[in-house]
Amino acid sequence: QPPVQQTQGFQQPPVQQTMQQPRQRSFGNGVVLRKGQKASLEQLCPGLDLIHVGLGWDLGPNGQGYDLDVDAFMLGADGRVVGDDWFVFYNQPESPDQSVRLLCDSKTGAGAGDDEIVQVQLSKVNPQVQKIVFIVSINEAKQYGYNFSNVANAYVRITDVKTGNEIARFQLTDYYANVNSMVVGEVYRHNGQWKFNPVGDGVSADLMDLCVRYGVNVAG
């Protein structure tokens, strides 16, 4: 099965949102980043180590039955996982080096806070891991035809656990009817520092496809 391709070649425009007003959320005063505007976490918060990657979204009337999940793939320099168990999701909530943990998994997207949170301790990340990719996928999307045209107001934000301060935030803007998963952002090493890249690219892929894409052996 070939790797899933990015949606950069998609011709159709994003779906025009007619969603309800976004739920009230208690955002901090972090730097608001645009798509592709990379930022050094060390420069934004010197001495940063333990972070929360918080993700949230709203569901439109046709998306009320959706269960969105966060997946974190820990990749080496070749863009593939450093081992078959080096990705964190609802059935594997902690990485082998215990540096990445899924703290909460919202089934409905309800509530005022982050819908899902991934905790990362940067100093504990295995040296082989060069990048952690955070993806929001819709459970059983391909079976039932679920897609991101029924999702709105999605965001990712990074918080310093030590102080509780929000460091950076990225609001997604493009929602496609032929997208089942969204690569929301990446935390990666660059010249000895950890940086954040707000990606916001959709893929026509479910969790199994994502595993193939990032080199997880799913045989058997």
Describe the structure in your own words:
The protein has 220 residues and is mostly beta strands. The chain has helices spanning 41-44, 141-144, 207-213; strands at residues 31-33, 39-40, 50-59, 68-75, 87-88, 100-105, 116-121, 131-138, 151-160, 166-171, 181-190, 193-203. A hairpin with a 2-residue loop joins strand 11 and strand 12. The radius of gyration is 16 Å and the shape is globular. Mean pLDDT is 87; it is low at 1-12.
* Strand order within the widest beta sheet: 1-10-9-3-7-6
Which range does the strand content fall in? 35-45%
Care to count the β-strands?
A: 12
Oligomeric state of this protein: single chain
Shape annotation: globular
Number of helices: 3
Q: Give the fraction of residues assigned to helices.
A: under 10%
- Radius of gyration from the alpha-carbon trace, in angstroms: 16 Å
Give the topology string: H per helix, E per strand: EEHEEEEEEHEEEEH
pLDDT < 50 stretches: 1-12
Q: What is the typical, i.e. mean, pLDDT?
A: 87
Structural class: mainly beta
Distance between the termini: 14 Å
Main sheet specs: 6 strands, mixed
